[in-house]
Design goal:
By secondary structure, this protein is α/β, with parallel strands linked by helices. 51% of the residues lie in helices and 11% in strands. Helix 19 packs across helix 20. The model has no long low-confidence stretch (mean pLDDT 90).
Length: 633
Amino acid sequence: MTKINGDRMKYMRLLAEKYPTMRCLTREIINLSAILNLPKGTEHFMSDIHGEYEAFTHIINNCSGVIREKAAALYADALSPDEIKEICTLIYYPAEKLRLLKKERSLDREWYRTTLERMLEIARTLSAKYTRSKVRKAMPSDYAYIIDELLHAQQDVDNNQIRYHKNILDTVINVSADDFVLSLAALIKRLAVDRLHIVGDIFDRGDAADKIIDLLMKHHSLDIEWGNHDILWMGAACGSEACIANVVRNCIKYRTVRTLENGYGISLRSLVLFAERNYPNRKPMEAALSAVTLMQFKLEGQVIKRNPEYGMDDRLLLDKIDLTSGTVNCKGRVYKLNESLFPTLDPDDPYSLTAEEQAVIKELRAAFTGSHRLNKHVEFLYNHGGMYRVFNGNLLYHGCVPLNADGSFAQVGLFGDRYSGKEYFDIAETVARHAYFGRSRATQGLDFMWFLWCSRNSPLCGREIKTFERAYIDDKSAWDEPKNPYYTFYYEKKTCERILAEFGLSSEFSHIINGHTPVRTVKGELPIRAEGRLLVIDGGFCKEYHATTGIAGYTLIYSSHGLSLKAHHPFTTLEEALTKNLDIHSESEIVEKQSRRMVSDADIGREIQEEISDLYQLLELYRSGTISPKEKE
């Protein structure tokens, strides 16, 4: 027998407390070994949701078409396409669809029986890849026993089981038919996807990011890779004044003030009153946009001046404005300004806030840091998110791995040191967490949150954001936003393999899952890059991107059979989805078909194998008498 050191023996004795008898120990070994031979769970990847609640909700509900595909496969020969669409809509929106159907016609016992039997069959099909224990835990608690019985009905010689289950279903229809439909719909959606990955950018553009996070907080298993729009709101909650000004400006510009005021209880009243005094001939929200825009560039300038290592001095443009000629000098070229009113700009000290501006930003800072709901959501982002994630052999991140012009990893100077590759991601996450949980609100950490939002050297951004030029210059030649060389090199297989290796991945089945840059399908761009090593899944959820991209977003499904990209057409309305049983039309493209991947091939499988190894060692200790098992359960 192998000699066991003291610490290992302590662990074995603790394990023996959990499995005190030979019988319960061997039972667990058998159970875990069986789990290893089940198919791996289905993973669902989404990115760049940008506050589009209805489209997001629909894709969450239909699991990027997984439910529709299962229903179509089950009932291809038994139901018409319209009948399949109706059962799917009922699963997506059970409460709303039931209300509508009851207005249209009487739902008799036969309708409920047929519908419930079909839903049970779909649930039974989806549950096949899980242990019975896991399926039971996924069931709504009120009906767990009943659903468990119905899912495992088996025909016997005298049909006793069939009669038994028919009686159960009759009783359900008599006393709680609608509740049971809702419970089955919830179970089906939960079984369809084992793990959800959100690869960044929940916030901005659409007006319901807060509702999306409320929905995500109810999800059974997910992770979030922060996007630059997420880190902006997180920085605002930390108290970064530059982040706060950007958030407020975005909300006004994209008409999503509802998120601020109704979603998070952050009032813009002091800003609007200040703006009306300084821009008296403009509508209130136009004046507020003008006022906060100028405040934003002042605050950003202060951050850049405090942190010369950011290398962003070329973004200092307020001091390049000539108020007399109405022009600005950008990198040696003079442009005409489209704005003539800069009431709070001091040419001798352009980056200082006036006393009134300081009062406005102080009040906004208190509102952001003091918003209970915003802090609850930001803590959720911290607790379930990070700069990147390695999961089941894939590398997930939102933006880029900064590279040099020759394709090598860029060395980024921060905090008196230089970082690149994975080490850079790790230090960035450490600082971002300290900015919030450290609660010191140190200027350096708060400034870094703004850097992550918009720097060309930020792994969440990777481009030079031209907010000043787009706000004040009509000449669009000034709007071009140079990108990090990453966005050139990520088409090359060798670059992507080098990035994967940097994060500890070398398998032929490993991929980079990337968001951030909309795939312009109308211009012939494809989401599959580097010979399949990298997948871009930002196809444009946001309505404003639809004309540019030609579609309404990509999502990715990684099942036990391989990876499939889903290209989605625009979502219309919930009303049309309910009345016409309209699903989001999606084209599916198989990225990679694999020999069936089992739990043993997944991350959790390696953990289970380690646990089995520990249990076998305990079994050996029991058999040798080194540790004495209890005689009874």
